[in-house]
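Many introductory courses stop at the sequence. We go one step further.
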Amino acid sequence: MAGILKMMLKNPELPEKYRTPDGWPEGMQREWGNDEGTSAAARHRADLVSWMNKTRKALDDFNPDYVIMFGDDQYENFREDIIPPYAISAHEEFEFSPPANNVWGEDPERKIKIKGAAKKAKQLTSALIEDGFDVAYSYKPLHHPLGHAFYNAFLYLDYGRDKGFPYPVIPVAINCYGRAVIAQRGGLPRFDKVMTDDDFDPPAPTPNRLFELGRAIARIVSEGNDRVAVISSSGWSHAFLTKKNWYLHPDTDSDRKMYDAMVSGEYEPWTKLTGKEVEDRGQQEILNWSPLMGVMSELKRKPQQTGFVDTWIFNSSKAFLIAPPA
């Protein structure tokens, strides 16, 4: 689980003092331990799986008619030919395979199918356009069956591999990676060249615009009679996106501030967040949570359970939020 950290230690610009644990922050040294994070990885995974199971139980207790899921497309389905700020997949079905070397030891050639909610997705798209959101949509995949932000959610919410995921889904792909979506293919920083502004892409949609998108979705969906669950799938700040930390560890302090605001229902830090702040903090994927905060705000929904699983060495911290109807 510390593989990305080991890759970032090869950064030729990394100051010498950070190349060994002796120069790291105390918490990072402690998590690394004397086994390169193996013991900490077991604890970290156990915490994550516990929260995933709690989340799945809440979803099953609610038993939605369909699920709206926000997730980023990390140079997977959307590439050089088109980068929408956000796009709704109105597909009848989604088919994907488990990633290679997955934790369950499953055959990466195995096909997993998830039901789509195409009719509801078309209705949602139409209503959003009428509400002033020029949202993109598709009826079939372009380059990739489904981005990993989505299929990981299906796999992780069935961590015991005994339930499947029976709920129809409307994926809403968000261009979280913005200026790095093509320049870095939505991934690791490039160490083979000095990147300039001319190398980077146009920015991601602003956090406030995504917050308002969530509010609009909440208004539209609440006018119907369906039971709808809304899920955001992503980590928060990522080490490999946080340049000010030499790509070694995430910006946990900034994540905590956003988490505390979420727990207290204080949405101004979410609506006032700027794109430059997102990039500085390595919080690109928190943009998947901006529309969820808009949903929460519009419905005046209060969190019932929240969790924050932080880390120094496993690339990104993860937040959990369960907010069922009163």
